[in-house]
Amino acid sequence: MDKDNHQQGKKPYTAARTGDKKPYGKPAGKPGDRKPYGKPGERKSFGRPAGKPGSFGRKPMGKPAPKPAADMPSTLSRKVALEIFQDVVRKDAYAGLSLDDRMKNANLSQLDKRFCASIVYRTLENLIRIDYALSFFLKDADSLEPTVRDILRISACQLLFHDRIPASAVVDEAVKLTRGAGLEGLTGLTNAVLRSMIRGKDEIKWPQKEEGVKYLSVMYSVPEWLAQRLSDAYGPELAEAICAYRTESHYTTIRPNLTAYTDEAFEALLQKKVWEVEKGAVAHAYRVRLASEIARDADYMAGHFSIQGESSMLAAQAVNVKPGMQVLDCCAAPGGKTAYLAESMNGAGRVYAWDVHEHRVTLIRATAHRLHLENVRPVVRDAAVLKEDLVGTMDAVLLDAPCSGLGVMDNKPDIKYRATPESVKELTEIQEKLLDTCCQYVKRNGTLVYSTCSVLPEENGEQVKRFLEKHPEFAISPLPETIDEKFRKEYTDTGLQLLPHRDSVEGFFIARMRRIK
């Protein structure tokens, strides 16, 4: 599933890698808690230094901002964080959307906005571990008044993971939040539980590695069923690496409009920005830091570049389109890969872009209009319903299928709590139906590319294996040589599973197949 912009769940106030399609079902990374992305020196960089090796662009103006005082976050920032957190855990909202909506109506400073986002995402990222820690100081948490429980959760997060916030301030603010919620009678409990945690947090008996799935679940806040599936699929060591990985969040991935810019010309354009920029792991990808509201940049609005995740770019590159082709992007909204395909064809041929929802097809049209792409044909259509007159007419079909989104759970942690064994089973059935239907549009010797943003084999390699068994008219096909060897070497007879900790891109799956008869 496409992650080219991923507006529904993207992290605000940090320039995270983005994609442009929300995960199927309902779908993060906060300032200051991310490890470096990739190994130093492994990607080419160039141009004017921006104060660090491996980057280019101008240095930001002025002196570095002084470190804020320890008591800088306001009570309001915590109140808004509590409301957003409750939107997610009580109302099944998307974290990114709720944060954006509530921030618009809250009079917060930029410092408070960053703090608020950090509390929300770090609490979600570590929720199972936080609940485990609280269980040592709070009996029968499930029966506690829900708002008080959530106040304790975001406060415990600060005590365990925000070492610059004084413990006394955390307790005082938690009591204020409890009182402000009209729960005066529970302020004593809030105070007592948090003070007990301050005294006893170093004595918490955490699960040990030999406890297997329980260790993975608690220490990395992954639901037990998911920890078990990852362990079964990848083995305990690789499963731990997948669960433990936290993406470095302070950049946005962009790429040039391929109809207007070579990489060299685009790099010259980027030299004029006050951004830090380095080359990504994928051809035409650039990682940008220090870019505020990049979607309002004049060059973006003029169609000179797009925001697109690197794995999403790889999926489009796997199609290996040529000018003049007839191409179908089956689940296309909001159009990142559609645009990449259309640009790669240099305006010749057609890219038919389908989505089942009118408002999302409107996004595809807007993308094509912004990028001045005349060879895109957006249509409202359910890709699971066969269109007889198009059977055997397409040179290439791209199916970026609805999926669990668990390939990006490091960046959007609410995803891992939404997915269930039942929802994954339902998704695999949808994926199978889409494959059975959309493969019929491919001409003989044409290409079918299947992709998801999942790391679960049942959505990926196992799905492709079942498809090839049912459809002997298709065979697995190598990735084009235009894709870097470091990715092609991971390709198997059922496709390419991209893993963030290994490949320095979003968790994704890509399989390229050819119709042989």
Task: Give short descriptive properties of this protein.
517 residues; four-stranded antiparallel sheet; disordered N terminus; eight-stranded mixed sheet; alpha/beta; globular
Helix content: 40-55%
* Mean pLDDT rating: 88
Radius of gyration over all CA atoms, rounded:
24 Å
Question: How many individual β-strands?
Answer: 12
Low-confidence stretches: 2-71
Number of helices: 20
What characteristic shape results from the CA principal axes? Answer: globular
Structural class: alpha/beta
Largest sheet: 8 strands, mixed
What portion of the residues fall into strands of 2 or more residues? 5-15%
End-to-end C-alpha gap: 27 Å
Structure notes:
With 517 residues, this protein is an alpha/beta fold. The protein is 40% helix and 12% strand. The chain has 20 helices and 12 strands. Strands 5, 6, 7, 8, 9, 10, 11 and 12 form an 8-stranded mixed beta sheet that branches. α1 crosses α5. The longest helix is centred in the last third of the chain and has 18 residues. The chain is globular, with a radius of gyration of 24 Å. The two termini are 27 Å apart.
In short:
The chain has 517 residues and is an alpha/beta fold. The protein contains 20 helices and 12 strands.
SSE topology:
Layout: H1 75-91, H2 95-104, H3 110-125, H4 127-134, H5 146-161, H6 167-180, H7 187-200, H8 213-219, H9 224-234, H10 236-244, E1 252-256, H11 263-271, E2 276-279, E3 286-289, H12 298-301, E4 305-307, H13 310-319, E5 326-329, H14 336-344, E6 350-355, H15 358-370, E7 376-380, E8 394-400, H16 414-418, H17 421-438, E9 442-452, H18 461-470, E10 474-476, H19 485-488, E11 496-498, H20 500-503, E12 508-515
Parallel strand pairs: 5-6, 5-8, 6-7, 8-9
Antiparallel strand pairs: 1-3, 1-4, 2-3, 9-12, 10-12, 11-12
